[in-house]
Amino acid sequence: MSPDPRELSAQGTEGWRGSLSRRNFLRRGTFTAAAVAVAGSVPGLSGVVAGTTANAPTVEAGVNDVEDDAGVLSEPLVAQVKDVTTGEISLFQGEREVVVRIPALARSLLSAARQ
Amino acid sequence: MSSHREAPEISKDPVADSTDVYAFMSPDKAGMVTLIANYIPLEAPDGGPNFYEFADDVLYEIHIDNTGDGNPDISYQFRFTTVNNIPSSFLYNDGPITSLTPPSPSSNWNRQQTYTLTRVDNDPRNRWGSSSVVLGSGLLCPPCNIGPLSTPNYAALAATAVHSVGAGPFSAQVFVGQRAEGFYVDLGAVFDLGDLRGFAGDHAGGPAAGLMNGMPGVNSTADVNVHTLALQLPAAELTRAVPKGAGDPAAVIGVWTTASRQRVRVWGNWFDGGDLRSGPWTQVSRLGNPLVNELLIGIGAKDVWNTQPPTADGTEFLNYFAEPLLPQLLPSLYPGVFPALAAYNIGSPNTRPDIEAIFLTGIPAGVITQAPTFTNYNGTGVKADMLRLNTAIPPSSSPNSLGLLGLDVAGFPNGRRVFDDVATIALRAVAGATLGYVVPAFKADGAAGVVDFGLTTGATGTDLSAKGTEDYLKVFPYLGTPYCGYRNPSATPVSVAP
User: Fold this and answer.
1) B216: cis peptide before it, omega within 30°?
2) How many CB pairs under 8 A join A and B?
3) With contacts defined as CB-CB under 8 Å, which chain B residues touch A6?
4) Are residues B14 and B220 in contact, defined by beta-carbon separation less than 8 angstroms?
5) Chain B environment of A5 (Cβ under 8 Å)
6) Residue A69, pLDDT score
7) What's the CA gap between B455 and B442, in Å, rounded?
8) Quick one: DSSP state of residue B268?
């Protein structure tokens, strides 16, 4: 079921609450300094997505592989690397978005995308 | 237009582009509220072979705020499923469509839509708590009105697309499908530097362009269609409590529509299940009161406005309501016609509390001196663009298309009926006709009470058909039978004075 629009708007770091807090959104450009989108299985990430609720979309710590569903991709996964330095990556799967901050992973994805 | 192609980005995504919202007490069913949200602007009736339809990948919603906080307490969600009954055919239909039946390979109708209607209660303070209930699924949409060979007896066919649905304590009548555009305005004139054909001789550039006063208006949307989401609901299922009367804030509901898309789309997966859509729903279109984003919000903020909740209108967008540009332009466009407005514009204060009241808070009791008990104030003062309807005010037995300006308290801006001349009402309001209610020292120019688009007969508001160019229904869903493609080809010339 589709969630409450208020929750929808609060998703991610570019939701309207984040935009409004800047007070100058009418003049700003895009937030994304560097973005790479990949679709498919990314080892180690499926556990984060499966274990994170829509109301707590940010994961600051590192990521551990989850053995019981590793390698199983029930729905396509899309990753948007927003900031390589901080490792901020938005992960989209189904109707959810999770934000993780894993610099090493961001660097790996960027490196892979450049190959 | 009301909200047709009102912002740069959404004008490129017409299936998600809301055009009008209506909310009114049903004239033929006591105690029932009708809510209508229209999408897909300016449908040419003959626009085949891929005729117009709602999108499967858009979440359409009609929201109701019944607590006055600018947030949705109740949302009705519409989700669509489209099937090709005959995938090998390029045609919309390969025979007459004479009845609505569930999708089937044996159908004459190839491209067919069904939908699911869900009611979501969002606020635990609400008497229904937080819940979500499917009111109906597999509900059938009518086809577009193609022509006498494809869709004979269209009106009767479409009438069978009015469904009675319900679950638990909730019930509704619902119609989803093509309708005749009910909004009327003279687009060709107003977007030609604010020309009003009837007053073109007074326009700063009118005489030099050979324009003169008294030219008749043109209903630019007279022969086009839209796609409609229409609900008819017991008022008691929408208000936060049973109101004690028309003066009780509990009688007032705020209504708006949104369209949302998932945040990610990956194109080009045609042979692997189609394009990928992923992530949470994010709002791409919003509409409450007519003409807000169209005429008040600056072009640099229009796209952002469409993504915001109504509560943002009282913060980030407040200046667009408090100090709108259009009243500043009118005295320049029509020199000498609006001297009182021109003087007010350069005075102090020169803000427009009347515009804020109409669009953002509702009108408190006592403001309309000729109807002092009237109110559609939300009771909280929260500023948010919503179409506010006082559900305790019954429908008018002799409606006036000028609504509250015509002292018809059952009309816009107390909700909005399909025939309300909202373009004229808004024009007169920005010209200063409503400012004196809130700033008593202001005396409006005479012109503020007479300017219009020349689309109704006279100034009395008794013409509910826009000079016969609108043909509304007297029963749900009230918007007229859509124009037929065969009889209304888009190339039909419109005879207009030069």
Assistant:
1) no
2) 92
3) 71-72, 122, 309
4) no
5) 61, 63, 72, 75, 258, 260, 281, 283, 309
6) 56
7) 29
8) -
CB nearest A26 (choices: B118, B266, B304): B304
**Phi-psi category of B366—alpha, beta or left, where left has phi over 0 and alpha has psi -120 to 50?**
left
pTM score, whole prediction: 0.89
Nearest CA in chain B to A53: B280
Q: What percentage of chain B has pLDDT greater than the value 90? A: 89
The residue type found at B136 is G
C-beta separation of B139 from B110 below 8 A: no
Helix (H) or strand (E) holding B158: helix B154-159
pLDDT band at B263 (very low <50, low <70, confident <90, very high): very high
Interface check for A96 against chain B (CB to CB < 8 A): the answer is: yes
Beta carbons of B309 and A9 less than 8 Å apart: yes
Strand residue runs (E) in B354-488:
387-390
Share of chain B above pLDDT 70, in %: 98
Domain boundaries along the sequence of chain B: 10-185+221-449
What tokens appear for B460 in the block?
């009395």
CA-to-CA distance for B64 and B133, rounded, in angstroms?
Answer: 16
Confidence band, pLDDT 50/70/90 cuts, at residue A13: very low
Q: Residue B282: its chain A contacts at CB < 8 A?
A: 8-9, 11
Q: In the prediction, which pLDDT does A64 show? A: 52
Q: Which pLDDT band, with edges at 50, 70 and 90, does B310 fall under?
A: very high
**Closest listed residue to residue B183, CA positions, set B228, B236, B139:** B228
Strand partners, B133: B119
Whether residue B349 is preceded by a cis peptide bond, meaning omega within 30 degrees of 0, is yes
Q: With contacts defined as CB-CB under 8 Å, which chain B residues touch A93?
A: 278-279
Confidence of residue A50 (pLDDT cuts 50, 70, 90): very low
Contact of B388 with chain A, judged by CB distance below 8 Å, is answered with no
Phi, psi of B390 (to 5 degrees): -85, 110
Confidence of residue A72 (pLDDT cuts 50, 70, 90): confident
Task: Kindly give, in sequence order, each residue whose CB lies less than 8 Å from that of residue A68, ignoring residues fewer than 6 positions away.
Answer: none
